Amino acid sequence: MSLTKKRIKIVSGSSIIGLALIYLYKFAIAPATSVPRASSVAHGVEEQRQWPPTEDAVQRNLQIAYEAQNALLHQQRQELLHTKEQLAQLEEQVRSLQASTPRKYPKVKYLNYKNRKRILITGGAGFVGSHLVDDLMIQGHEVIVVDNFFTGRKRNVEHWLGHENFELIHHDIVNPLFIEIDEIYHLASPASPPHYMYNPVKTIKTNTMGTINVLGLAKRVMAKVLIASTSEVYGDPTVHPQPETYWGHVNPIGPRACYDEGKRVSETLSYAYAKQEKVQVRVARIFNTYGPRMHMNDGRVVSNFILQALRNETITVYGNGKQTRSFQYVSDLVDGLIALMASNYTQPVNLGNPVEQTIGEFANIIKHLVGGQSEVKQIKAMEDDPQRRKPDITRAKKRLNWEPKVPLESGLLQTISYFRNELARSDRFQESSRKYFDSPDLQRILP
Ligand SMILES: NC(=O)c1ccc[n+]([C@@H]2O[C@H](COP(=O)([O-])OP(=O)(O)OC[C@H]3O[C@@H](n4cnc5c(N)ncnc54)[C@H](O)[C@@H]3O)[C@@H](O)[C@H]2O)c1
């Protein structure tokens, strides 16, 4: 064999071996050992070079995809934690900024330690309670409000939040409470028919178990306690005007019974604790009260008529409109409550305005003060609606030197102005929330 022929043979032999090695690498070794490309890994699938892939290769590829997914999740979790930390830091900064920014509070008197009392007001975020808070704070006392916000609102006392003499506790008085105080005004209870009829059992519990808790607390810490009772203990009275000596005419199973009887038991409990446990009790029988911060939709005559007149709607009078009511302005009531607490008098005291109005007359007064186009119309009478209500306040005059001072017209003007502002506020709120929810940006985000 010539040298050239030998060379050709060697070259072609090695080419065949080379080709075989390349084939082996490409289809058997490389797919199993190659590093996956980022894009293919990101999609969880490695580029396949053999079809069908071997079971091992599939397993390996799945493992790689799983690990890549895990790495991604871990990274996202880390980012989330980091963002949460940043958020917490920002919240802390906002809190410390708020704490260091001096807030403007209504001016309060300075009382020295001896004269300053720690006063608990249950239901202090409600209509009457919040006005009582204002007066006692301004007098320089430490005031603690306990409220479950069933009908009360934080907004009623927000102007005191953060004040060193003020504390707001979210608590349901049906559960016991342990704090150190000198005096308690126990006002916690729904007060208007739609509110107290909404959950009659809870109304009874608040006025029985709640009152027991309050009297128990008063006993433990030797505090004086004033119970906010009501003219409803007289029911549909057969005596007119009603003196405190009148025992009442209450339907014990009617729709109002949960409140009327609840308050009667509340009074009974007070005198039982006074007799048996020597707790110092005061009982205020409160008659219809009105003023700013009363509920817009409490279904009572003042709010109903004012709202109807402000909206130019028909003013609706239940029954023939000849039933009478007497209305006291809230500041008069608050003066009476504070005077009663300060007095030594322990028997129940009526706090109300004896100036009597028929409901029909009252509707016309409001229509005139608001000045709209509303007409006054009579509708079906309410069940158990008392026909006459007028307090005999001889006792309050004699024992507390108290009587209401605010004339109906000026009290109503203040209340109408409050309701007008509240309506405007709620209209503004509705408008801005409508704009927000209709905004194209939000529509894009919403699913
Ligand atoms: N406003 C009146 O014309 C009137 C008349 C007679 C008696 N009263 C009595 O005066 C008190 C105050 O009446 P208002 O007109 O301010 O009523 P309101 O509804 O505005 O206030 C009552 C407050 O008690 C709170 N409350 C209710 N149940 C509670 C519970 N279980 N635990 C803690 N808080 C609770 C409510 O959230 C609310 O803040 C009531 O006891 C009421 O019976 C009021």
UniProtKB/TrEMBL annotation:
It is a single-pass type II membrane protein. GO terms for cellular component: Golgi cisterna membrane. Its main location: Golgi. Keywords: Coiled coil, Decarboxylase, Glycoprotein, Golgi apparatus, Lyase, Membrane, NAD, Signal-anchor, Transmembrane, Transmembrane helix. The chain crosses the membrane at residues 7-25. Pfam families: GDP_Man_Dehyd (PF16363). SUPFAM superfamilies: NAD(P)-binding Rossmann-fold domains (SSF51735). Residues 120-412 form the NAD(P)-binding domain. This is UDP-glucuronic acid decarboxylase 1. The gene is Dmoj\GI16768.
